[in-house]
Amino acid sequence: MTASFRTAWEEQHPNGTVIYRDLAADPLPHIDEISATAGFSDPAEHTPEQRAAFALRVELAEELERADAVLIGAPMYNFTIPSTLKTWLDQVIIVGRTAGETPSAAGTPVTVVASRGGSYAPGTPRESFEFVQNYLEKALNGMLGLDVDFIVPELTLARTTPAMADLVELSDASRAKAHEDATTKAKALAARF
Fold first, then answer.
1. Where residue 163 falls among pLDDT bands split at 50, 70, 90?
2. What is the spatial distance between Cα 72 and Cα 112, in angstroms, rounded to a whole number?
Protein backbone atom coordinates (compact mmCIF):
# COMPACT_ATOMS: atom_id res chain seq x y z
CA MET A 1 0.00 0.00 0.00
CA THR A 2 2.87 2.37 0.72
CA ALA A 3 4.26 1.58 -2.75
CA SER A 4 0.87 2.44 -4.29
CA PHE A 5 0.89 5.74 -2.42
CA ARG A 6 4.46 6.56 -3.43
CA THR A 7 3.86 5.70 -7.10
CA ALA A 8 0.77 7.89 -7.27
CA TRP A 9 2.55 10.71 -5.42
CA GLU A 10 5.53 10.64 -7.79
CA GLU A 11 3.27 10.55 -10.85
CA GLN A 12 1.48 13.68 -9.64
CA HIS A 13 4.58 15.38 -8.22
CA PRO A 14 7.43 14.23 -10.56
CA ASN A 15 9.87 16.97 -9.56
CA GLY A 16 9.36 16.51 -5.84
CA THR A 17 11.89 15.05 -3.45
CA VAL A 18 11.15 11.77 -1.71
CA ILE A 19 13.11 10.83 1.38
CA TYR A 20 12.80 7.12 1.97
CA ARG A 21 13.71 5.54 5.29
CA ASP A 22 13.46 1.77 5.62
CA LEU A 23 13.60 1.52 9.39
CA ALA A 24 13.73 -2.29 9.28
CA ALA A 25 16.71 -2.43 6.90
CA ASP A 26 18.50 0.55 8.42
CA PRO A 27 17.27 0.95 12.02
CA LEU A 28 17.96 4.05 14.02
CA PRO A 29 19.70 3.82 17.39
CA HIS A 30 17.44 3.71 20.42
CA ILE A 31 17.27 6.75 22.65
CA ASP A 32 19.70 6.39 25.52
CA GLU A 33 20.59 8.57 28.50
CA ILE A 34 22.98 10.69 26.43
CA SER A 35 20.56 11.46 23.60
CA ALA A 36 17.63 11.94 25.99
CA THR A 37 19.44 14.40 28.24
CA ALA A 38 20.69 16.29 25.18
CA GLY A 39 17.07 17.00 24.29
CA PHE A 40 16.49 18.71 27.63
CA SER A 41 19.67 20.76 27.91
CA ASP A 42 21.17 23.84 26.31
CA PRO A 43 23.00 22.81 23.10
CA ALA A 44 25.82 25.21 24.01
CA GLU A 45 26.47 23.07 27.08
CA HIS A 46 26.36 19.66 25.36
CA THR A 47 29.21 17.25 25.87
CA PRO A 48 30.81 15.89 22.69
CA GLU A 49 28.77 12.68 23.17
CA GLN A 50 25.53 14.66 23.54
CA ARG A 51 26.36 16.74 20.43
CA ALA A 52 26.88 13.57 18.38
CA ALA A 53 23.71 11.90 19.66
CA PHE A 54 21.60 15.04 19.26
CA ALA A 55 22.80 15.61 15.69
CA LEU A 56 20.73 12.64 14.52
CA ARG A 57 17.65 13.93 16.33
CA VAL A 58 18.09 17.32 14.66
CA GLU A 59 18.52 15.68 11.24
CA LEU A 60 15.28 13.72 11.69
CA ALA A 61 13.43 16.79 12.98
CA GLU A 62 14.59 18.80 9.97
CA GLU A 63 13.39 16.07 7.59
CA LEU A 64 9.97 16.18 9.23
CA GLU A 65 9.85 19.99 9.21
CA ARG A 66 10.70 20.17 5.46
CA ALA A 67 8.18 17.50 4.43
CA ASP A 68 5.10 18.47 2.45
CA ALA A 69 3.60 15.12 3.42
CA VAL A 70 4.69 12.04 5.37
CA LEU A 71 3.88 8.40 4.68
CA ILE A 72 4.38 5.79 7.40
CA GLY A 73 4.04 2.03 7.01
CA ALA A 74 3.06 0.68 10.42
CA PRO A 75 2.32 -3.04 10.43
CA MET A 76 0.92 -4.35 13.70
CA TYR A 77 3.43 -6.52 15.56
CA ASN A 78 2.15 -8.11 18.77
CA PHE A 79 -0.70 -5.59 19.00
CA THR A 80 1.47 -2.48 18.56
CA ILE A 81 3.88 -0.69 16.23
CA PRO A 82 7.30 -2.09 15.27
CA SER A 83 10.07 -1.10 17.67
CA THR A 84 11.91 0.54 14.78
CA LEU A 85 9.02 2.99 14.29
CA LYS A 86 8.88 3.65 18.04
CA THR A 87 12.60 4.46 17.90
CA TRP A 88 12.01 6.96 15.07
CA LEU A 89 9.30 8.63 17.15
CA ASP A 90 11.56 8.73 20.21
CA GLN A 91 14.28 10.37 18.14
CA VAL A 92 12.07 12.90 16.33
CA ILE A 93 9.97 14.00 19.33
CA ILE A 94 11.95 16.93 20.72
CA VAL A 95 10.08 18.90 23.37
CA GLY A 96 10.29 22.60 22.60
CA ARG A 97 10.81 21.97 18.91
CA THR A 98 8.78 19.24 17.23
CA ALA A 99 6.62 18.69 20.32
CA GLY A 100 5.14 21.09 22.83
CA GLU A 101 2.92 24.15 22.59
CA THR A 102 3.94 25.05 19.02
CA PRO A 103 5.22 21.94 17.23
CA SER A 104 7.49 22.90 14.34
CA ALA A 105 5.81 20.58 11.81
CA ALA A 106 2.22 21.16 13.00
CA GLY A 107 -0.38 20.59 10.32
CA THR A 108 1.83 18.46 8.07
CA PRO A 109 -0.35 15.71 6.57
CA VAL A 110 0.67 12.20 7.60
CA THR A 111 -0.79 9.06 6.07
CA VAL A 112 -0.28 5.90 8.11
CA VAL A 113 -0.79 2.51 6.47
CA ALA A 114 -1.55 0.41 9.54
CA SER A 115 -1.78 -3.18 8.33
CA ARG A 116 -2.67 -6.11 10.52
CA GLY A 117 -3.04 -9.85 10.16
CA GLY A 118 -6.46 -9.97 11.81
CA SER A 119 -9.17 -7.42 12.47
CA TYR A 120 -9.28 -5.08 15.43
CA ALA A 121 -12.11 -2.90 14.15
CA PRO A 122 -14.94 -1.76 16.42
CA GLY A 123 -17.25 -4.65 17.20
CA THR A 124 -14.68 -7.39 16.56
CA PRO A 125 -13.57 -9.77 19.33
CA ARG A 126 -10.10 -8.19 19.42
CA GLU A 127 -11.18 -4.56 19.32
CA SER A 128 -9.57 -3.86 22.72
CA PHE A 129 -6.19 -5.07 21.40
CA GLU A 130 -5.92 -2.18 18.90
CA PHE A 131 -2.91 -0.17 20.04
CA VAL A 132 -1.49 0.95 16.69
CA GLN A 133 -3.98 3.64 15.67
CA ASN A 134 -4.63 4.75 19.23
CA TYR A 135 -0.94 5.16 19.98
CA LEU A 136 0.01 6.78 16.66
CA GLU A 137 -2.90 9.23 16.85
CA LYS A 138 -1.66 10.42 20.25
CA ALA A 139 2.03 10.55 19.25
CA LEU A 140 1.66 12.03 15.77
CA ASN A 141 -1.28 14.34 16.34
CA GLY A 142 -1.30 14.87 20.08
CA MET A 143 2.44 15.44 20.50
CA LEU A 144 3.70 16.51 17.07
CA GLY A 145 0.55 18.33 15.90
CA LEU A 146 0.50 16.46 12.60
CA ASP A 147 -2.69 15.95 10.55
CA VAL A 148 -3.04 12.15 10.67
CA ASP A 149 -5.06 9.91 8.36
CA PHE A 150 -5.10 6.10 8.52
CA ILE A 151 -5.43 3.45 5.82
CA VAL A 152 -6.03 0.08 7.49
CA PRO A 153 -5.68 -3.12 5.46
CA GLU A 154 -6.93 -5.96 7.64
CA LEU A 155 -6.90 -9.75 7.64
CA THR A 156 -3.57 -9.87 5.80
CA LEU A 157 -2.83 -13.34 7.18
CA ALA A 158 -6.01 -14.89 5.74
CA ARG A 159 -4.28 -16.44 2.70
CA THR A 160 -1.54 -18.08 4.80
CA THR A 161 -3.42 -19.08 7.96
CA PRO A 162 -5.70 -22.13 7.54
CA ALA A 163 -7.96 -21.05 10.42
CA MET A 164 -8.69 -17.82 8.50
CA ALA A 165 -9.54 -19.49 5.17
CA ASP A 166 -13.13 -18.28 5.30
CA LEU A 167 -11.86 -14.68 5.55
CA VAL A 168 -9.87 -14.64 2.29
CA GLU A 169 -12.59 -12.78 0.39
CA LEU A 170 -12.78 -10.09 3.08
CA SER A 171 -8.98 -9.90 3.14
CA ASP A 172 -8.82 -9.40 -0.62
CA ALA A 173 -11.49 -6.69 -0.45
CA SER A 174 -9.63 -4.92 2.37
CA ARG A 175 -6.38 -5.09 0.41
CA ALA A 176 -7.97 -3.73 -2.77
CA LYS A 177 -9.64 -0.88 -0.87
CA ALA A 178 -6.36 -0.01 0.89
CA HIS A 179 -4.51 0.18 -2.44
CA GLU A 180 -7.28 2.37 -3.85
CA ASP A 181 -7.30 4.58 -0.74
CA ALA A 182 -3.51 4.94 -0.86
CA THR A 183 -3.57 6.01 -4.50
CA THR A 184 -6.47 8.42 -3.97
CA LYS A 185 -4.88 9.96 -0.86
CA ALA A 186 -1.51 10.43 -2.57
CA LYS A 187 -3.09 12.13 -5.58
CA ALA A 188 -5.15 14.44 -3.36
CA LEU A 189 -2.12 15.42 -1.28
CA ALA A 190 0.08 15.93 -4.34
CA ALA A 191 -2.57 18.21 -5.83
CA ARG A 192 -2.29 20.46 -2.74
CA PHE A 193 1.39 21.07 -3.52
1. very high
2. 5
